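Appendix B. Raw example, untouched.
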Amino acid sequence: MDRVVEALRAGGITPDVREFPQSTRTAEEAAAAVGTTLGQIVKSLVFFADGAPVLVLVSGANRVDPAKLAAACGAQAVRRASAADVHRATGFAIGGVPPVGHARPLPTYLDRDLLQYDVVYASAGTHTAVFAIAPARLQALTAATPADVAAP
C-alpha cells in the first residue's frame, strides 16, 4: 500500500485510502464494503497486447472485450495475463492490483464508462483497501487513454 500512497502523493493527490476488515478483492466485495455501485469500482486488469503487458482500468460493472482492447491498443492479438504475469508486471497480486505504484509503468487504457461518475474507487494495493478518486484525476495520473473496451 505504501507504493500506492507514494504514487498518489507524487501525483499531487492527497490519498483517501479506506481499509476494511473484509475483503475488497472482487468488484462486488469492494462495492459492498464502500457502499457504492458496482460501476464505480475500478478493476485494474493486466492483458498482453502483441506480447507486451498493458493495464486496463475497467468499471466493475463491465468485462473487457479483447477485440475492443486490441483495436484501442492497435494490437493484432490480446490475451488476459495469468496471476504470475500480473505479479511480474505490476508487483501486486490479483485482487489487489492498483492503478498506480507498479513495479514499472505500463501503457494504460481507461474504460470510458468510468468517466460518468464523480468519484470511483480503486484498489490501494491490498485485498482490503481502496482509495477514492475522481475519474478525470485517475486518467491524468495514469496517463490512461480513454477507450471503449467494455464487452456488450
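End of appendix B.
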